Amino acid sequence: MNLPRSYLSNIRLLAMQLYIFFLPAGGVIPLHNHPGMTVFSKLLLGEVHIKSYDLVDCQQASSSKRFSVQAVRLARLVADKVYEAPCDTSVLYPTTGGNIHQFKAVTPCAILDVLGPPYSREDGRDCSYYRDFPYQDFSSKRSLKKVQNYA
């Protein structure tokens, strides 16, 4: 179900970008990344389910010859948990901490995101969306497939 979501933004400074997302109960911010960015996320109110992944090293992922590394990437589950405000701020680093993640509101909620450096297509920091699906040969791992023209 694709419920509406809204955000107050786009406060953009040279070194960072701020967003406040408002999600109704059941609202989703789909699985996405923040390439080359550090992200501080703070749940301001409500409850949200966060599912996040880190990509597995390319050398490990390329050992499987059955799929193109560009089309499918192995990922390690970092978090799959419901958070309730007030809670600690989470920090996502460019390659660790669950940089590929999604939010699903359990109750109406508000999330503050502070990103640095800001999004920039020219500098290779454009958001990509993903789909997760089970990888048959790795029962304890998940893989992510980059979605072209999603949203």
From TrEMBL:
Domain of life assignment: Eukaryota
Keywords per UniProt: Iron, Metal-binding, Oxidoreductase, Signal
TM region positions: none
Family designation: Belongs to the cysteine dioxygenase family.
KW Coiled coil (keyword) present: no
Signal sequence coordinates: 1-30
Cofactor(s), by name: Fe(2+)
Keyword Metal-binding attached: yes
PANTHER family to which the protein is assigned, alphabetical: 2-AMINOETHANETHIOL DIOXYGENASE (PTHR22966), CYSTEINE DIOXYGENASE (PTHR22966:SF63)
Any single Pfam family the record assigns to this protein: PCO_ADO
One of the protein's GO biological processes: detection of hypoxia
Name of protein: cysteine dioxygenase
UniProt GO MF annotations: cysteine dioxygenase activity; metal ion binding
E.C. numbers: 1.13.11.20
Reaction(s) the record says it catalyses: L-cysteine + O2 = 3-sulfino-L-alanine + H(+)
EC class of the enzyme, as a word: oxidoreductase
